[in-house]
Write a structure and sequence with these properties.
Pfam family, one (chain A): ABC_tran
Number of helices of chain A: 11
CATH superfamily of chain A: P-loop containing nucleotide triphosphate hydrolases
Number of strands of chain B: 0
InterPro entries (chain A): AAA+_ATPase, ABC_transporter-like_ATP-bd, ABC_transporter-like_CS, P-loop_NTPase, PstB-like
Number of domains of chain A: 1
Shape of chain A: globular
Helix content of chain B: over 70%
GO molecular function (chain A): ATP binding
CATH topology of chain B: MetI-like fold
CATH architecture of chain A: 3-Layer(aba) Sandwich
Protein name (chain A): Phosphate transport system ATP-binding protein
Keywords (chain A): ATP-binding, Nucleotide-binding, Transport
CATH superfamily of chain B: MetI-like
CATH topology of chain A: Rossmann fold
Largest sheet of chain B: none
Number of helices of chain B: 11
CATH class of chain A: Alpha Beta
Bound molecules: adenosine-5'-diphosphate, magnesium ion
Distance between the termini of chain B: 49 Å
Oligomer: heterodimer
Order of helices and strands of chain B: HHHHHHHHHHH
CATH class of chain B: Mainly Alpha
């Protein structure tokens, strides 16, 4: 009985909690090379959080840690804690497959499977056991609509996704991610391989997705961060230098290094 | 600084280049000439004896009645047993080494030895088969003992080919699958294997076409030379094409050499077909990413 009550409270506090990720004193090493130093950061629900910083500063590393994709790299060690929905993501109880179902990811280079558009989007539901054609059809349509690409592909769902343009492929990848109904979408420089028009389309899409999802986006491009994000984190050589409202960070940076970076003095 | 380029040295370099071109061309020609001579001789001798009956008959004491049926069916059955055993074992090993095994010195050790095994003379595999399958497991001189021996023989080749095929599946699409909460096995089954199948098939067919021409290990594990039945179970006696050819060539009368020629033509045609299929698969599926 008391257990149930405390569970109830836990759930409530999780729902009320404005932070979906809570990163605390987090360090990460590749072998003996430290890549992240003492990161403290709360990621707010239903906001777009941008992570900026020069190449090699640890943006991708931080992002990949959030859904534990970082574990694909051998010899990675960590210390500190990261909580998702108030539960430690590294605890034994946390099934990594479950975490990755709730925290989806879109990669830098569009990476559709060498399958049809339909099978790409249906992949996630299928691996989670959905077999009924009708249910899959619905999910595929809804996801493609959600990724603002339904109208462009609805007549060729059975064609190979490799036949699409880079920007379309990336939106199919976003649709594929939406199909598992995640709470959080991690995006690692999702537009860096795309032309300006596709980039704009994807930025529009990201802003729309904000209503339903929490989005963390790594970007090399400061203007992009300024255009779309609510919060911006500036990283440098594995440290989180400054993390605040996007407007504040760009108009009134506190740290000298942030100022130097956003005014283009290095990067 | 001015670099002085001597005209006469340049002429020498160009002359030397032509000499090497001619030398290498000659080397290539020598190989081709002998291969063609061999082929012409075999066709000359064998074509006359290559009849439908030759494909349908069992061995016989008279040249006119001798046939290769037992060898063709024996080789076919042997491959039908060998292929699944070697491919299932080989692909599993390759998957383990590529996808599951920790990257440490032990894995490395296995890796190097798989590659070494691919270079071990086939007769050694024959002795291994004789010791284990024929005697220790008391299978005797049976089809299954031959098939198991052949499986071991081509296993290393298939492992290496499958590893290469698995390794060539782009990391990005594996990450996409894992990133959606798929388990490693789901990723392998739905993403890695389908993408690797053409490479695995190509390697496997080439390995099998090596096995179908092997004689020595099968002689050791007791394939028959003359047999008047086709195998009706895995424990039957059997013979294979190269052994029949071998037994004909070892007869003193000249006509039997011609019969052997006919047998070689059959074997060559089958080998060429297998290689053509392998090349076709490779070309059809390459460059998909
Ligand atoms: N798989 C890896 N193994 C070893 N070191 C790595 C690996 N991935 C990244 N690093 C190192 O970690 C640091 C941060 O890299 P990364 O997170 O990719 O930076 P960013 O995404 O900001 O460009 C870099 O110094 C990089 O060399
Ligand atoms: Mg990066």
């Amino acid at each position: 009985m008391t257990d149930m009550i405390s569970n109830q409270q836990n759930e409530n506090s999780a729902i009320d909690d404005q932070y979906i990720f809570d990163i605390h004193d987090f360090n990460l090493w590749y072998g003996s090379d430290q890549a992240l130093y003492g990161i403290n950061m709360g990621i707010e629900k239903n906001k777009i959080t941008a992570v900026i910083g020069p190449s090699g500063c640890g943006k991708s590393t931080l992002l990949k840690t959030l859904n534990r994709m970082i574990e694909m790299v051998p010899n990675v060690n960590t210390s500190g804690s990261i909580k998702y929905d108030n539960a430690d993501i590294f605890s034994k109880k946390q099934m990594v497959e479950d975490l990755r179902t709730q925290v989806g990811m879109v990669f830098q280079k569009p990476n559709p499977f060498p399958k049809s558009i339909y099978d790409n989007v249906a992949y996630g539901p299928r691996i989670h056991g959905i077999k009924k054609k009708k249910v899959l059809d619905e999910i595929v349509e809804k996801s493609l609509r959600g990724a603002a690409i339904w109208d462009e592909v609805k007549d060729r769902l059975n064609q190979n996704a490799y036949g699409l343009s880079g920007g379309q492929q990336q939106r199919v990848c976003i649709a594929r991610c939406l199909a598992i109904e995640p709470n959080v979408i991690l995006m690692d420089e999702p537009t860096s391989a795309l032309d300006p028009i596709s980039t704009l389309k994807i930025e529009e899409l990201i802003k729309e997705l904000k209503d339903k999802y929490t989005i963390v986006i790594v970007t090399h491009n400061m203007q992009q961060a300024a255009r779309i994000s609510d919060k911006t984190a500036f990283m440098l050589t594995g440290e989180l230098v400054e993390f605040t409202d996007t407007d504040t960070l760009f108009s009134n940076p506190k740290d000298k290094r942030t100022e130097d970076y956003i005014t283009g003095r290095f990067g | 600084m001015q670099i002085h380029i001597s005209k006469s040295r340049m002429k020498r370099r160009i002359a030397l280049n032509s000499i090497f071109r001619i030398l290498f061309f000659l080397a290539t020609t020598i190989g081709l000439v002998f291969l063609s001579l061999l082929l012409i001789r075999i066709l000359n001798q064998g074509l006359g004896y290559l009849t439908i009956d030759f494909l349908r008959n069992f061995p016989a004491p008279y040249v006119e009645e001798a046939g290769m049926f037992a060898g063709i069916i024996g080789s076919l059955f042997l491959m039908l047993l060998t292929a699944p055993i070697a491919i299932i074992l080989g692909v599993s090993t390759a998957l383990y080494l590529e996808e599951y095994a920790p990257k440490n010195r032990f894995t490395n050790f296995i890796q190097v030895n798989v590659q070494n095994l691919a270079g071990v003379p086939s007769i050694v595999f024959g002795l291994l088969g004789l010791t284990f399958f024929v005697y220790l497991f008391q299978m005797g001189y049976t089809l299954i003992a031959g098939a198991l021996t052949m499986s071991l023989l081509i296993l290393p080749v298939i492992v290496v080919a499958a590893q290469e095929a698995i390794r060539s599946v782009p990391k990005e699409i594996k990450e996409a699958s894992i990133g959606m909460g798929a388990t490693k096995w789901q990723t392998i089954w739905r993403i890695v294997l389908p993408a690797a199948v053409p490479g695995i098939l190509t390697g496997s067919i080439l390995a099998l076409s090596r096995a179908i021409g092997e004689t020595a290990p099968l002689l050791i594990v007791g394939a028959a030379t003359a047999i008047y039945t086709i195998p009706d179970s895995m424990l039957s006696k059997y013979t294979v094409m190269p052994i029949q050819i071998y037994s004909w060539t070892s007869r003193p009368q000249e006509e039997w050499q011609f019969v052997a020629g006919a047998g070689i033509i059959v074997l060559l045609v089958i080998l060429l077909c297998m290689n053509a299929i392998a090349v076709w698969i490779r070309n059809k599926f390459q460059n998909r990413y």
